[in-house]
Amino acid sequence: MSHPARVLRAARGLLTADGSVIVVDERVADTFTAPGDDIERLYYGFSLTHCLPVGMTDPPAAGTGAVMRTDTVRRYALDAGFGTAETLPIDNEFWRFYHLKM
User: Fold this and answer.
1) Which of 2.30.130.10, 3.40.50.150, 3.40.120.10, 3.40.47.10 would CATH assign to domain 4-101?
2) Burial (CB count <10 Å: 0-12, 13-18, 19+), residue 46
3) How far is residue 35's CA from residue 82's CA, in Å, rounded to a whole number?
4) How many whole angstroms separate alpha carbon 36 and alpha carbon 77?
5) How many CB atoms lie within 10 A of CB 39?
6) pLDDT in tens for each of the 102 residues of the chain?
């Protein structure tokens, strides 16, 4: 996605005052440590060969790719005008779930 904060801002604009958005993203470690586990290496492969190149086609793109850390998702949510971006306690090997509130 070239402009994640812009997309989140548009989603926020569709909500009522008590509305919220759920974001599902790849589950990677909160900080990168080489060489990373199997899942992280898989996601980096997707990111470098597909997601990042496609996401850079609409300059000025954010250049995030497929591997977003929790801090990055929170920053995009706050930039989009959300008040909070909570990581949901859903146990899943591949996905992390965020709850963005007004």
Assistant:
1) 3.40.50.150
2) middle
3) 34
4) 26
5) 14
6) 899 999 999 999 999 999 999 999 999 988 888 999 999 999 989 999 999 999 999 999 999 888 889 999 999 999 999 999 999 999 999 999 999 999
Cα 94–30–33 angle (5° rounding)?
95
Helix axes 4-13, 70-79, angle to 10 degrees: 50
Which pTM does this prediction carry? 0.90
Single-letter code of the amino acid located at 7: V
Residues 44 and 86: beta-carbon distance below 8 Å: no
Identify the helix (H) or strand (E) that includes residue 21: strand 20-26
